[in-house]
Structures are given as structure tokens and as C-alpha cells.
Specification:
Elements lengths: L9 H5 L8 E7 L5 E6 L5 H12 L4 H11 L7 E8 L8 E8 L8 E9 L8 H15 L5 E2 L7 H9 L16
Helix pairs in contact: 2-3
């Protein structure tokens, strides 16, 4: 099995991820014409992130989002990237968020960027927010030397499945398996 695993170049594995305090992207017009800014999440954003996620999942998880935010700046080893999209002229209004991390050597896979969570305020959908966030995190992964980006989507959750496929993502070489422990 080791012969089939593609290894990442040494310099890619050793690069530090960009500082979460840096501006990620200059304001730009999305495909839908909305001028958006993407930046690293701030503590003040956690309330909005929690509300956006709760609107999608029905379950508010403020402690979870705060913990992910705190891991973002903890160390280079954590390699968590937590970004928010805002209107270009109103940087304190969160329209959506994306969280990802760089993972390495799980089950022999070369280091790659993983999209852990992506959600957009229901009132801001169809404005290019998700596309802008995905492009921004892909750029952060590339800066860190990654050449692949992965995520996991429930088979019957059509909206995220169609979105990620429309952005060029497709089934990868791994199959997720699970077992009930009760």
C-alpha cells in the first residue's frame, strides 16, 4: 500500500501556515456581484458563526466554535484556518464562514487541506459567499504547500453535495466507514 501513496514534497510539509491575523483577501465582487471581504475570524464573530450554523443544523454550538477559533492561533502545528466573509463595506457583519485544517498522513494519505465546516447565512445565499470562502481557503491551503483539498458530505444532503461538485470537487480515493458502538 505504501507504494501507491503519493508523498508531499518536504518543503510543502515544513511550510508554516499564514498567520490568522493577516487579511486573507482584498474586497472583491463575487460572481453574483456582491462586494465581499474574507478575513480571519475574530472573537466577536463567534456569536454570528453560532447563529449561522444553528440556522443550518438546528443545534447551537457556541463552545465548539470558540474552541476552533482558539485553536486557529494556538500554534503552527494546529494549522486550523477559520475565515469569515463580510460585506466589503461592513466588516463586522458575518455573512458566512469556513473552517479548515491541514491534516497529514491519516491512513497514509499525503498532507492536504480539509474543509471542516462551511455555512452561509440563509439571507445571504446565492450571492457568491460560499464560492468566495471556498476559494479563499483553497488559496490558504496552496500557500501552505497543499495540492489537494478534501471534505466530507452526507450522501443525502443534496445542497452541499451539489455545491462542492459545482466547485470541482469529486469522490476521492478513500471510503468512510463507521460502526455503531451501542
Amino acid at each position: 500500500m505504501k507504494d501507491r501513496v503519493k508523498r508531499a514534497p518536504a518543503q510543502a510539509r515544513e511550510r508554516a501556515r499564514p498567520s490568522p491575523k493577516e487579511a486573507v483577501a482584498e474586497p472583491q465582487a463575487s460572481e453574483a456581484g456582491t462586494r465581499l471581504s474574507v478575513r480571519a475570524a475574530r472573537p466577536a464573530d463567534i456569536e454570528a458563526v453560532t447563529a449561522i450554523d444553528a440556522a443550518a443544523t438546528g443545534l447551537p454550538k457556541p463552545a465548539h466554535w470558540l474552541e476552533l477559533y482558539q485553536r486557529q492561533g494556538a500554534s503552527v502545528a494546529a494549522r486550523v484556518i477559520f475565515l469569515v466573509a463580510t460585506p466589503a463595506e461592513q466588516s463586522d457583519r458575518v455573512l458566512g464562514f469556513i473552517v479548515g485544517e491541514i491534516r497529514a498522513w491519516e491512513f497514509g494519505s499525503a498532507p492536504c487541506g480539509w474543509v471542516y465546516a462551511l455555512s452561509v447565512d440563509p439571507g445571504a445565499r446565492l450571492r457568491g459567499v460560499a464560492e468566495t470562502l471556498l476559494a479563499a481557503i483553497a488559496a490558504e491551503f496552496r500557500k501552505a504547500g497543499m495540492t489537494k483539498m478534501r471534505t466530507m458530505v452526507a450522501r443525502d444532503d443534496r445542497l452541499p453535495m451539489m455545491f462542492f461538485r459545482s466547485e470541482g470537487m469529486m469522490a476521492g480515493p478513500y471510503i468512510q466507514l463507521e460502526k455503531d458502538l451501542e
